[in-house]
Structure formats: C-alpha cells, structure tokens
Amino acid sequence: xxxxxxxxxxxxxxxxxxxxxxxxxxxxxxxxxxxxxxxxxxxxxxxxxxxxxxxxxxxxxxxxxxxxxxxxxxxxxxxxxxxxxxxxxxxxxxxxxxxxxxxxxxxxxxxxxxxxxxxxxxxxxxxxx
Length: 129
Prior knowledge:
Layout lengths: L2 H27 L4 H19 L9 H14 L10 H12 L5 H7 L10 H6 L4
C-alpha cells in the first residue's frame, strides 16, 4: 500500500501537478486569460492521462510525442522512480509522520504560494520550471 500512498499518489502525482499549475499561471502572466488557461489545461490534462492509462484507443501525435519527450528531460529527473524504493518510502513516511522535525523546512516551503504549498520540484532543482 505504501507504494500507492504516499509514493504514487502524493510524491509522484502530487508533485507532477505543480508544473501543470505553474504552466497555467505562467500563461496567465503572459496575457492569456486565467479562465481560458484553466479550461484549456484542465481539458488537455485529461487527454494524455486517458491515452497513457489505456482508457481510449487514440494515440499521441508525432508532434505530441516530441513535446512530451522534451518536457520529460526538462522537468523530471531520470531517477524519479527511486521514490518507490523502500528507503525513499521510509524517508517520506518519517517526514510525513514527524513534521516537527522538519519545521524549518516546512516554514520555507509552505509559506510562499497561494495554494499553500511551494513547488517541491522547483525547490529540489533550485530553479523555476
């Protein structure tokens, strides 16, 4: 069960959601209406998920495959699957169950974003994605 929660659910899916939200915010900062950006992103998030999870028989276009490969190299670490290894699960479980030990880290991470959580991907790499 720990492979699903927290490794797959929070660590992977939750972390992957941050670049999507930040892409929406960036589009709005660059002049796209926030309402249009939100509708577009929420609609388009469903498409690759449905394809990858085998819910539809459609295939990604060649152009989409190129864009996805580019994004994977720019956004994610090559060793990301290590989050499901026992040592990583033990580490995150400890951090989740003993937040007082990480109080300083949490104060920095969770104080800067409107939604209440700072992007862990950006924090890990020290740069904006």
